[in-house]
Write a structure and sequence with these properties.
The complex is a heterodimer. By secondary structure, chain A is mainly α. Chain A has a domain of 56 residues. Chain A contains five helices and no strands. The longest helix of chain A has 21 residues. Chain B is built from two helices and 22 strands. Chain B is globular. Classes of the chains: A mainly alpha, B mainly beta. The interface between A and B is large, with 40 and 47 residues.
Chain lengths: 90, 410
């Protein structure tokens, strides 16, 4: 499949705009997200794949381990992981 | 002895006694503190943590299979306490070193063979970067990586066609980020890849790569709603396919020395919505795989043939659970329905049009333990003219299954 110079320019511009948007906003946490506590994040994120776990399912040290495992599975942000684990440890 | 001397001696004796008491008391307190310190130290968490999780599934399968071939029909019925596709014992071992390193190992026994789902080590480099190496689950779609476990899957079986790309030896880079009030994530891997079999199917090459080519797999996902209830993902996989020593296939153009290649694409969607008192969950995944055209040899008569080696599959699943119901039994029940479609290449030895309708009524004993009562109806129609093929045009298979399955996370 051949891409014309015009189409290539359009794709490149869209790509650059997307990268710029991500670059500017990529690491910025909106107010709504930033204000969520561990319980809120626990109730919202776990349920996408499975029901939310009870805090007594694992010990505090195990929750740290489970948190790292789940961050890599569900690709949670680091803030989300930290808040959820802190909630489950208490 | 005068009174003054007696008083002085008494004072000295009293001082000595008090000093002795104080010293002993201090020593005792020190000893208590030391014991307490030892006890606390023994309870204090160390840098490392080892734990086991994983899953177990077990159940009963009643199956009725009808074959139709050349106008003849045969039916086969079986009852089995578990079967290879629905029994699984998979302990998962997790080792954590501090907050940077995590090793994961999940062996799995399906009643006939022991395999390994993943065996890898992850380094949490920064808040948005995790690097993993070893035998990893490739980031293609979401089913294999997130939804396949029996206690997570709301239906007793895996949908057809989701086992590609599976696991492979390689390295992976991944992370999740906020995007204002939305979120996005990336997941990219470089792995040994796959080989092309003589019938045009794809097999893993394992730890010893058979060529210089590597396979790149990646997934980008966006969670556009601030409550993270919707996730949309797009995946791609590209790589050259290894040619085994015993290969009988060849390039269509005899002057072309380029080996076969594979490209795969997928989109996935996961949406969770609460309409009091019911929780709805919709999950779907579509994937397609294409292998460059080659000439193949029919093992029955050694004639050469070719076909468009393109495979596609999808599933769509809806589950409903009255999580907010006041009835204690009702709130533990969940109804899940799924439609599966899989199309294997026409005129290949394995050509078929396959579809599946699944329904399951689940009873959740806890957040991680479920008892499923499932019914599955599977239909497969062959789409090839080769008489030695299971996918022979005109041949069809229909399967009805009743399954009772118990699944729990360890």
């Amino acid at each position: 499949m051949k891409i014309s110079a015009k189409n290539f320019t359009a794709i490149a511009l869209v790509g650059l705009a997307a990268l710029g948007f991500i670059g500017i906003n990529g690491c910025v946490e909106g107010k709504q997200l930033a204000e969520k506590n561990g319980m809120k994040l626990w109730s919202e994120n776990c349920q996408r794949c499975h029901f939310s776990p009870s805090s007594n399912a694992f010990s505090n040290e195990e929750w740290k381990t489970v948190g790292m495992h789940m961050q890599s599975r569900a690709l949670l942000t680091s803030n989300e992981r930290d808040k959820i684990i802190e909630f489950l440890q208490n | 002895m005068n009174t003054r001397n007696v008083f002085r001696k008494s004072l000295m004796a009293a001082s000595a006694f008090a000093l002795c008491l104080a010293t002993n008391s201090y020593a005792q307190e020190g000893s208590d503190k030391s014991d307490l310190s030892k006890q606390v130290s023994s309870l204090m968490p160390g840098e490392s943590n080892f734990m086991m999780a994983g899953l177990v599934t077990f159940g009963f399968v009643n199956q009725s299979t009808s074959y139709t071939s050349g106008g003849f029909k045969a039916t086969d019925k079986t009852n089995s306490l578990g079967d290879v596709d629905r029994y699984e014992f998979s302990p998962m071992f997790l080792w954590r070193h501090g907050d940077k390193l995590l090793a994961e190992f999940e062996p799995s026994w399906d009643g006939s063979a022991i395999g390994v789902n993943w065996a890898d080590v992850s380094y949490f480099v920064s808040r948005g970067l995790i690097i993993r190496g070893g035998y990893i689950v490739l980031p293609f779609g979401t089913y294999t990586k997130r939804l396949a476990a029996g206690w997570i899957n709301k239906l007793p079986s895996d949908p057809m066609g989701v086992d590609m790309a599976g696991s492979d030896f390689g390295v992976e880079f991944e992370g999740g980020f906020p995007l204002g009030n939305m979120k996005w994530s990336y997941d990219v891997s470089l792995s040994n890849g796959f080989a092309l079999a003589n019938d045009g199917t794809i097999t893993g090459v394992g730890i010893n790569a058979m060529n210089n080519g590597k396979t790149v797999t990646g997934r980008l996902a966006l969670l556009p709603l601030s409550n993270s209830s919707l996730e949309i993902g797009a995946s791609g996989l590209v790589g050259s396919l290894a040619t085994p020593a015993a290969a009988t296939f060849s390039n269509i153009n005899s002057t072309d020395t380029k080996g076969p290649s594979l490209s795969m694409y997928a989109v996935d969607l996961n949406f969770l919505h609460n309409i009091n008192p019911v929780q709805l969950n919709f999950k779907a995944q579509y994937s397609t795989a294409a292998v460059s055209n080659m000439n193949y040899i029919n093992p029955a008569d050694t004639t050469s043939y070719t076909f468009t080696n393109s495979t596609s599959s999808y599933f769509a699943q809806l589950s409903v659970r009255p999580t907010q119901s006041k009835n204690k039994v009702l709130k533990k029940l969940e109804l899940a329905m799924r439609y599966v479609n899989y199309t294997a290449p026409k005129q290949s030895l394995w050509g078929q049009n396959y579809s599946e309708v699944d329904v399951s009524l689940d009873y959740w004993l806890s957040w991680r333990t479920v008892l499923k009562l499932g019914f599955e109806n599977l239909k497969s129609d062959g789409t090839t003219s080769f008489t030695n093929s299971n996918g022979l045009d005109g041949n069809s298979t229909s399967i009805n299954r009743l399954i009772i399955q118990f699944a729990t996370e360890l």
